[in-house]
């Protein structure tokens, strides 16, 4: 059976989603007007849909897999499960009001809140025992306060520049931390999905890890291995120099420069970093 996958067709998640699929070896559309595309070689069909609708299609079982935002999944109330964080489209969901006017959740009682995420907001208010009026807007919610439609808003904040430009500031705790996620309908463990999942995971690992090679005196190996233990354990090979070994180990890309400094200072030499293009762990 062809695996049917939903991909954001526009907006904040669209480009990064098609990038990760392309890196995973799948055909992707070249024209943003294409609505669907069959990748015959991999027996997969992609459907380009609004990220807000993707959770519904997957939750209903119409499509097998989807890429969407955690916030959109929660807001939809769809019965789909997150199976993997994808590491892009990160945002935080916040209440915001005119800078300096509100400071805590309690201030929300009786106010009018505008948002595109009614499900998330009503659920949060209910759980915190706050009574307020929630109004759904499709976008540009920041403007609603100035226009007198709402007292506060609840919206996605990434850099915060949209809020600042509107003279607004967040208050209260972060309502939720979001990022792009891979979703399926509960319990989908088909072999086709497993292959897809491993490919995407391979790309994520390749993005966040690098391969490190170095030579070191065998007597310093325990110290070096403690600094860089690798996923399974380092590969240690003989070196054409008495008492020395060659080591190969996967390390997180973040801080890899610091790790090179530390390894050098305990005697490692010829330390090399190489990008990983793809992998299966
Ligand atoms: N700067 C950002 N602006 C908007 N959404 C972002 C941003 N950064 C990450 N996201 C995430 O992207 C998803 C929203 O996607 P998108 O912007 O395409 O939806 P939308 O706002 O409903 O659509 P549109 O803006 O095209 O009307 C959410 O999961 C959100 O958390
Ligand atoms: O914190 P920032 O980096 O400024 O990003 C957050 C803004 O981006 C999104 O708007 P979008 O561009 O999707 O427009 P919309 O409100 O019409 O959906 C979101 O709704 C905020 O307005
Ligand atoms: Mg938007």
Automatic annotation (TrEMBL):
Under the heading PROSITE patterns, the entry gives: ATP_P_PHORIBOSYLTR
Catalytic reaction(s) noted: 1-(5-phospho-beta-D-ribosyl)-ATP + diphosphate = 5-phospho-alpha-D-ribose 1-diphosphate + ATP
InterPro entries for this protein = ATP-PRT_HisG_long, ATP_PRibTrfase_cat, ATP_PRibTrfase_CS, ATP_PRibTrfase_HisG, HisG_C, N-reg_PII-like_a/b, N-reg_PII/ATP_PRibTrfase_C
Pathway it works in: Amino-acid biosynthesis; L-histidine biosynthesis; L-histidine from 5-phospho-alpha-D-ribose 1-diphosphate: step 1/9
Q: How is its activity regulated?
A: Feedback inhibited by histidine.
Give a GO molecular function annotation for the protein. Answer: ATP binding
Q: Which UniProt keywords apply?
A: Amino-acid biosynthesis, ATP-binding, Cytoplasm, Glycosyltransferase, Histidine biosynthesis, Magnesium, Metal-binding, Nucleotide-binding, Transferase
Query: Its Enzyme Commission number?
Result: 2.4.2.17
* Entry keyword annotation includes Membrane: no
Where does this one sit in the cell? Cytoplasm
Q: Where is the ATP phosphoribosyltransferase catalytic domain?
A: 50-186
UniProt main location, coarse = cytoplasm
Which family does the UniProt entry place this protein in?
Answer: Belongs to the ATP phosphoribosyltransferase family. Long subfamily.
Q: What's the protein name?
A: ATP phosphoribosyltransferase
- Native organism is Nocardioides exalbidus
Underlying gene: hisG
């Amino acid at each position: 059976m062809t695996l049917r996958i939903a991909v954001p067709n526009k907006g904040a998640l669209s480009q990064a989603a098609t990038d990760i699929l392309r890196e995973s070896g799948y055909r992707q559309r070249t024209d943003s007007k294409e609505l669907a595309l069959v990748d015959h070689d991999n027996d997969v069909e992609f459907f380009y849909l609004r990220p807000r609708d993707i959770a519904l299609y997957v939750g209903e079982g119409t499509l097998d897999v989807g890429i969407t935002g955690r916030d959109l999944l929660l807001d939809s109330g769809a019965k789909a499960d997150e199976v993997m964080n994808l590491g892009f489209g990160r945002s935080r969901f916040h209440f915001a009001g005119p800078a300096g006017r509100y400071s805590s959740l309690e201030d929300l009682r009786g106010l009018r809140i505008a948002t595109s995420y009614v499900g998330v907001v009503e659920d949060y208010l209910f759980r915190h025992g706050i009574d307020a009026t929630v109004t759904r807007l499709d976008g540009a919610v920041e403007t609603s306060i100035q226009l007198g439609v709402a007292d506060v808003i609840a919206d996605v904040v990434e850099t915060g520049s949209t809020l600042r430009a509107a003279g607004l500031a967040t208050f209260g705790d972060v309502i939720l931390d979001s990022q792009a996620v891979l979703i399926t309908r509960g319990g989908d463990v088909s072999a086709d999905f497993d292959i897809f999942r491993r490919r995407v995971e391979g790309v994520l690992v390749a993005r966040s890890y690098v391969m490190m090679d170095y030579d070191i005196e065998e007597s310093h190996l325990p110290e070096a291995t403690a600094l860089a233990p690798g996923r399974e354990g380092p590969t240690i090979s003989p070196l054409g120099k008495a008492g020395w070994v060659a080591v190969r180990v996967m390390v997180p890309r973040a801080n890899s420069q610091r790790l090179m400094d530390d390894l050098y200072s305990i005697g490692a030499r010829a330390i090399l970093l190489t990008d990983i293009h793809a992998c299966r762990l």
